[in-house]
Amino acid sequence: MNPLLVASQLNETFNQSLCEHAADVEIVPVPMGPPSSLPRAAEVFVAAPFRKAGGQLPPRPPAGWPFDLKWIQLVSVGIDFYPEWLFDGPVVTSARGSSAVALAEFALASILGAAKRFPDIWIDNAERWAPTPLSLVAGTTLGLVGFGALGEALAPRAQALGLEVVAVRRSDAPIPTPGVRRAADLAELFQVSDHVVLAAPATLETHQFINRGVLAHAKPGLHLINLARGALIDDAALLEALADGRVSLASLDVTYPEPLPANHPFYGHPRVRLSPHTSVHTPDTRRNLAARFAANLDRYRQGQPLTDVIDLARGY
Protein backbone atom coordinates (compact mmCIF):
# COMPACT_ATOMS: atom_id res chain seq x y z
CA MET A 1 0.00 0.00 0.00
CA ASN A 2 1.39 3.39 -0.98
CA PRO A 3 1.55 6.02 1.80
CA LEU A 4 -1.47 8.28 1.95
CA LEU A 5 -0.40 11.86 1.31
CA VAL A 6 -1.84 14.36 3.81
CA ALA A 7 -1.33 18.11 3.37
CA SER A 8 -1.31 19.64 6.85
CA GLN A 9 -1.44 23.24 8.03
CA LEU A 10 -0.77 22.20 11.63
CA ASN A 11 2.53 22.26 13.45
CA GLU A 12 5.17 19.58 13.77
CA THR A 13 3.75 18.40 17.12
CA PHE A 14 0.47 17.40 15.49
CA ASN A 15 2.10 16.01 12.37
CA GLN A 16 4.43 13.83 14.42
CA SER A 17 1.55 12.65 16.61
CA LEU A 18 -0.45 11.72 13.53
CA CYS A 19 2.43 9.67 12.17
CA GLU A 20 2.60 7.84 15.49
CA HIS A 21 -1.11 6.98 15.34
CA ALA A 22 -1.44 6.20 11.62
CA ALA A 23 0.70 3.87 9.55
CA ASP A 24 1.62 4.51 5.92
CA VAL A 25 0.93 8.24 6.03
CA GLU A 26 3.16 10.92 4.55
CA ILE A 27 2.62 14.41 5.98
CA VAL A 28 3.44 17.40 3.80
CA PRO A 29 3.40 20.74 5.67
CA VAL A 30 1.64 23.54 3.76
CA PRO A 31 1.27 27.25 4.60
CA MET A 32 -1.63 28.63 6.62
CA GLY A 33 -4.58 30.23 4.87
CA PRO A 34 -6.46 29.34 1.68
CA PRO A 35 -4.27 27.04 -0.41
CA SER A 36 -3.25 28.37 -3.81
CA SER A 37 -1.93 24.89 -4.57
CA LEU A 38 -1.43 21.52 -2.90
CA PRO A 39 0.82 18.56 -3.66
CA ARG A 40 -0.64 16.73 -6.66
CA ALA A 41 -1.08 13.42 -4.87
CA ALA A 42 -2.61 14.87 -1.68
CA GLU A 43 -6.00 13.30 -0.95
CA VAL A 44 -6.50 14.78 2.52
CA PHE A 45 -6.12 18.38 3.73
CA VAL A 46 -5.87 19.30 7.42
CA ALA A 47 -7.05 22.92 7.58
CA ALA A 48 -6.21 25.38 10.33
CA PRO A 49 -8.65 28.28 10.84
CA PHE A 50 -8.61 30.79 8.00
CA ARG A 51 -9.46 33.72 10.29
CA LYS A 52 -9.87 34.77 13.91
CA ALA A 53 -13.30 35.64 15.32
CA GLY A 54 -14.56 38.77 13.62
CA GLY A 55 -11.95 38.71 10.87
CA GLN A 56 -12.54 38.60 7.13
CA LEU A 57 -12.95 35.28 5.36
CA PRO A 58 -10.71 34.86 2.31
CA PRO A 59 -12.05 34.50 -1.24
CA ARG A 60 -12.01 31.23 -3.11
CA PRO A 61 -8.57 30.34 -4.54
CA PRO A 62 -8.31 31.68 -8.10
CA ALA A 63 -7.94 28.29 -9.78
CA GLY A 64 -7.81 24.59 -9.14
CA TRP A 65 -9.77 24.25 -5.90
CA PRO A 66 -10.44 21.62 -4.56
CA PHE A 67 -7.52 20.16 -6.52
CA ASP A 68 -7.56 16.37 -6.08
CA LEU A 69 -8.74 16.35 -2.48
CA LYS A 70 -11.14 13.71 -1.23
CA TRP A 71 -11.41 14.82 2.40
CA ILE A 72 -10.84 17.94 4.52
CA GLN A 73 -10.21 17.73 8.27
CA LEU A 74 -10.84 20.86 10.35
CA VAL A 75 -9.05 21.51 13.64
CA SER A 76 -12.14 23.06 15.23
CA VAL A 77 -15.65 21.85 16.01
CA GLY A 78 -17.45 24.86 14.57
CA ILE A 79 -17.19 26.05 10.98
CA ASP A 80 -17.35 29.81 11.52
CA PHE A 81 -13.59 30.24 11.02
CA TYR A 82 -13.82 28.84 7.47
CA PRO A 83 -15.38 30.16 4.21
CA GLU A 84 -18.38 28.57 2.53
CA TRP A 85 -16.38 27.51 -0.51
CA LEU A 86 -14.36 25.10 1.64
CA PHE A 87 -17.48 22.92 1.93
CA ASP A 88 -18.34 22.85 -1.77
CA GLY A 89 -16.55 19.65 -2.70
CA PRO A 90 -14.87 16.97 -0.58
CA VAL A 91 -16.34 15.66 2.66
CA VAL A 92 -15.39 17.83 5.65
CA THR A 93 -14.95 16.52 9.18
CA SER A 94 -14.55 18.38 12.46
CA ALA A 95 -12.40 18.00 15.56
CA ARG A 96 -15.37 17.08 17.74
CA GLY A 97 -14.36 15.99 21.22
CA SER A 98 -10.62 16.53 20.85
CA SER A 99 -10.54 19.40 23.36
CA ALA A 100 -13.49 18.37 25.56
CA VAL A 101 -11.45 17.47 28.65
CA ALA A 102 -9.29 20.58 28.38
CA LEU A 103 -12.41 22.76 28.16
CA ALA A 104 -14.13 20.92 31.00
CA GLU A 105 -11.14 21.42 33.28
CA PHE A 106 -10.96 25.10 32.34
CA ALA A 107 -14.64 25.53 33.19
CA LEU A 108 -14.18 23.83 36.55
CA ALA A 109 -11.11 25.95 37.28
CA SER A 110 -13.19 29.06 36.56
CA ILE A 111 -15.95 27.87 38.89
CA LEU A 112 -13.58 26.91 41.70
CA GLY A 113 -11.53 30.07 41.25
CA ALA A 114 -14.66 32.19 41.61
CA ALA A 115 -15.92 30.33 44.69
CA LYS A 116 -12.54 30.43 46.41
CA ARG A 117 -11.81 33.99 45.19
CA PHE A 118 -8.50 33.20 43.51
CA PRO A 119 -6.29 35.18 43.21
CA ASP A 120 -7.87 37.88 45.41
CA ILE A 121 -7.24 35.99 48.67
CA TRP A 122 -3.51 35.68 48.08
CA ILE A 123 -1.55 38.11 50.23
CA ASP A 124 1.89 39.64 50.05
CA ASN A 125 2.34 41.22 53.48
CA ALA A 126 1.46 40.68 57.16
CA GLU A 127 -1.00 43.60 57.26
CA ARG A 128 -3.34 41.67 54.97
CA TRP A 129 -3.39 38.60 57.25
CA ALA A 130 -7.14 38.26 57.76
CA PRO A 131 -9.56 35.51 56.71
CA THR A 132 -11.81 36.12 53.72
CA PRO A 133 -15.33 34.64 53.43
CA LEU A 134 -15.48 32.08 50.63
CA SER A 135 -18.22 30.11 48.87
CA LEU A 136 -18.87 26.43 48.38
CA VAL A 137 -19.19 24.86 44.96
CA ALA A 138 -21.05 21.85 46.37
CA GLY A 139 -24.78 22.49 46.43
CA THR A 140 -24.74 25.05 43.60
CA THR A 141 -26.19 24.61 40.12
CA LEU A 142 -24.33 24.51 36.83
CA GLY A 143 -26.23 25.32 33.66
CA LEU A 144 -24.93 24.07 30.32
CA VAL A 145 -25.99 25.85 27.13
CA GLY A 146 -25.43 23.07 24.63
CA PHE A 147 -24.69 19.46 25.42
CA GLY A 148 -22.15 17.96 23.07
CA ALA A 149 -18.69 16.60 23.78
CA LEU A 150 -17.92 19.38 26.28
CA GLY A 151 -21.14 18.74 28.18
CA GLU A 152 -20.42 15.03 28.28
CA ALA A 153 -16.97 15.73 29.76
CA LEU A 154 -17.97 18.52 32.12
CA ALA A 155 -21.24 17.25 33.61
CA PRO A 156 -19.90 14.19 35.50
CA ARG A 157 -16.88 16.14 36.73
CA ALA A 158 -19.15 18.86 38.06
CA GLN A 159 -21.46 16.31 39.65
CA ALA A 160 -18.47 14.75 41.41
CA LEU A 161 -17.87 18.12 43.08
CA GLY A 162 -21.48 18.25 44.28
CA LEU A 163 -22.99 20.55 41.66
CA GLU A 164 -26.44 19.94 40.26
CA VAL A 165 -26.32 20.11 36.46
CA VAL A 166 -29.08 21.36 34.17
CA ALA A 167 -28.82 21.76 30.43
CA VAL A 168 -30.49 22.92 27.26
CA ARG A 169 -29.64 21.57 23.85
CA ARG A 170 -30.88 22.11 20.33
CA SER A 171 -31.54 18.44 19.68
CA ASP A 172 -34.51 16.55 21.10
CA ALA A 173 -32.19 13.61 21.78
CA PRO A 174 -32.03 12.55 25.43
CA ILE A 175 -29.16 13.92 27.49
CA PRO A 176 -26.86 10.91 27.90
CA THR A 177 -25.33 11.77 31.30
CA PRO A 178 -27.34 10.36 34.23
CA GLY A 179 -28.59 12.96 36.68
CA VAL A 180 -28.49 15.92 34.29
CA ARG A 181 -31.85 17.67 34.24
CA ARG A 182 -33.10 19.23 31.04
CA ALA A 183 -34.32 22.82 31.36
CA ALA A 184 -37.31 23.87 29.29
CA ASP A 185 -35.48 26.83 27.74
CA LEU A 186 -32.73 29.39 28.27
CA ALA A 187 -34.89 31.48 30.56
CA GLU A 188 -35.41 28.61 32.99
CA LEU A 189 -31.76 27.60 32.84
CA PHE A 190 -30.60 31.14 33.70
CA GLN A 191 -33.18 31.40 36.49
CA VAL A 192 -31.91 28.34 38.37
CA SER A 193 -28.16 28.38 37.64
CA ASP A 194 -25.34 29.78 39.77
CA HIS A 195 -22.83 29.15 36.98
CA VAL A 196 -23.63 28.97 33.27
CA VAL A 197 -21.17 27.54 30.73
CA LEU A 198 -21.76 28.39 27.08
CA ALA A 199 -20.93 25.36 24.95
CA ALA A 200 -22.90 26.07 21.77
CA PRO A 201 -21.58 26.64 18.24
CA ALA A 202 -21.66 29.99 16.47
CA THR A 203 -24.52 29.88 13.97
CA LEU A 204 -27.11 32.34 12.70
CA GLU A 205 -29.48 31.05 15.38
CA THR A 206 -27.01 31.53 18.25
CA HIS A 207 -25.61 34.93 17.25
CA GLN A 208 -25.86 37.12 20.39
CA PHE A 209 -28.59 34.88 21.79
CA ILE A 210 -27.28 35.65 25.28
CA ASN A 211 -28.96 39.05 25.21
CA ARG A 212 -30.92 41.41 27.46
CA GLY A 213 -33.97 39.19 27.35
CA VAL A 214 -32.09 36.11 28.51
CA LEU A 215 -29.95 37.94 31.06
CA ALA A 216 -33.08 39.49 32.56
CA HIS A 217 -33.88 35.97 33.84
CA ALA A 218 -30.44 35.49 35.43
CA LYS A 219 -30.36 34.31 39.03
CA PRO A 220 -28.83 37.25 40.94
CA GLY A 221 -25.07 36.83 41.20
CA LEU A 222 -24.77 34.50 38.19
CA HIS A 223 -21.30 33.49 37.01
CA LEU A 224 -21.25 33.36 33.19
CA ILE A 225 -18.48 31.32 31.52
CA ASN A 226 -17.94 31.39 27.76
CA LEU A 227 -15.65 28.77 26.24
CA ALA A 228 -17.44 28.52 22.90
CA ARG A 229 -17.58 31.63 20.70
CA GLY A 230 -17.65 35.30 21.63
CA ALA A 231 -20.42 35.97 19.11
CA LEU A 232 -22.89 34.14 21.36
CA ILE A 233 -22.99 37.12 23.76
CA ASP A 234 -24.38 40.62 23.31
CA ASP A 235 -21.50 42.47 25.00
CA ALA A 236 -23.55 45.57 25.78
CA ALA A 237 -26.21 43.46 27.48
CA LEU A 238 -23.57 41.62 29.50
CA LEU A 239 -22.00 44.89 30.66
CA GLU A 240 -25.42 46.09 31.82
CA ALA A 241 -26.01 42.85 33.72
CA LEU A 242 -22.59 43.14 35.36
CA ALA A 243 -23.35 46.71 36.37
CA ASP A 244 -26.68 45.89 38.05
CA GLY A 245 -25.46 42.67 39.72
CA ARG A 246 -27.54 40.12 37.85
CA VAL A 247 -24.18 38.75 36.67
CA SER A 248 -21.50 38.89 39.36
CA LEU A 249 -18.67 37.54 37.22
CA ALA A 250 -18.00 36.79 33.56
CA SER A 251 -15.17 34.39 32.74
CA LEU A 252 -14.54 34.85 29.03
CA ASP A 253 -11.99 32.76 27.15
CA VAL A 254 -13.49 33.83 23.82
CA THR A 255 -14.64 37.20 22.50
CA TYR A 256 -15.90 38.81 19.33
CA PRO A 257 -13.72 39.98 17.70
CA GLU A 258 -10.44 38.38 18.71
CA PRO A 259 -8.46 40.14 19.90
CA LEU A 260 -10.74 42.81 21.35
CA PRO A 261 -9.84 46.40 20.43
CA ALA A 262 -7.57 48.13 22.92
CA ASN A 263 -10.31 50.31 24.41
CA HIS A 264 -12.88 47.56 24.99
CA PRO A 265 -14.51 47.77 28.45
CA PHE A 266 -13.85 44.09 29.19
CA TYR A 267 -10.18 44.95 29.65
CA GLY A 268 -9.65 45.78 33.30
CA HIS A 269 -13.31 45.32 34.25
CA PRO A 270 -13.39 44.30 37.93
CA ARG A 271 -15.89 41.50 37.28
CA VAL A 272 -14.57 40.15 33.99
CA ARG A 273 -11.96 37.42 33.89
CA LEU A 274 -10.59 37.63 30.35
CA SER A 275 -8.25 35.07 28.79
CA PRO A 276 -6.98 34.97 25.17
CA HIS A 277 -8.78 31.88 23.79
CA THR A 278 -6.29 29.66 25.54
CA SER A 279 -8.42 26.96 27.19
CA VAL A 280 -7.77 24.36 24.47
CA HIS A 281 -3.99 24.83 24.38
CA THR A 282 -3.00 21.68 26.22
CA PRO A 283 -0.82 18.83 24.91
CA ASP A 284 -3.72 16.40 24.82
CA THR A 285 -5.80 18.45 22.38
CA ARG A 286 -3.52 17.86 19.38
CA ARG A 287 -2.88 14.26 20.45
CA ASN A 288 -6.63 13.61 20.70
CA LEU A 289 -7.23 15.17 17.30
CA ALA A 290 -4.45 13.05 15.80
CA ALA A 291 -5.96 9.89 17.31
CA ARG A 292 -9.48 10.67 16.03
CA PHE A 293 -8.10 11.60 12.63
CA ALA A 294 -6.11 8.37 12.47
CA ALA A 295 -9.23 6.34 13.29
CA ASN A 296 -11.06 8.13 10.48
CA LEU A 297 -8.12 7.41 8.16
CA ASP A 298 -8.72 3.71 8.73
CA ARG A 299 -12.38 4.16 7.81
CA TYR A 300 -11.42 6.19 4.74
CA ARG A 301 -9.04 3.51 3.49
CA GLN A 302 -11.68 0.83 4.01
CA GLY A 303 -14.34 2.82 2.19
CA GLN A 304 -16.44 3.24 5.33
CA PRO A 305 -18.38 6.39 6.27
CA LEU A 306 -16.33 8.93 8.20
CA THR A 307 -17.31 10.12 11.66
CA ASP A 308 -17.67 13.77 12.76
CA VAL A 309 -18.84 14.89 9.30
CA ILE A 310 -19.93 18.53 9.23
CA ASP A 311 -23.67 19.11 8.84
CA LEU A 312 -24.01 22.46 7.07
CA ALA A 313 -27.71 22.66 7.95
CA ARG A 314 -26.79 22.59 11.67
CA GLY A 315 -23.67 24.72 11.28
CA TYR A 316 -21.25 22.25 12.89
Low-pLDDT sequence parts: none
Mean pLDDT: 94
Note the total helix count: 7
So, CATH architecture of the largest domain?
A: 3-Layer(aba) Sandwich
- Total strand count, please? 12
Largest sheet: 7 strands, parallel
CATH class of the largest domain: Alpha Beta
Rg computed from alpha carbons, rounded to a whole number of angstroms = 21 Å
Strand order, biggest sheet?
8-7-6-9-10-11-12
CATH-defined superfamily of the largest domain: NAD(P)-binding Rossmann-like Domain
Order of helices and strands: EHEEEEHEHEEHEHEHEEH
How large is the share of residues in beta strands? Answer: 15-25%
User: Which of globular, elongated, flat, extended, rod-shaped describes the shape?
Assistant: elongated
Task: Please report the distance between the alpha carbons of the first and last residues.
Answer: 33 Å
CATH topology of the largest domain: Rossmann fold
Number of domains: 2
Q: Decide which structural class fits the backbone.
A: alpha/beta
Helix content: 10-25%
Give the topology.
Elements: E1 4-8, H1 12-21, E2 25-29, E3 44-47, E4 71-74, E5 91-93, H2 100-115, E6 141-145, H3 149-160, E7 164-168, E8 181-182, H4 186-192, E9 195-198, H5 212-215, E10 222-226, H6 235-244, E11 247-252, E12 272-274, H7 283-301
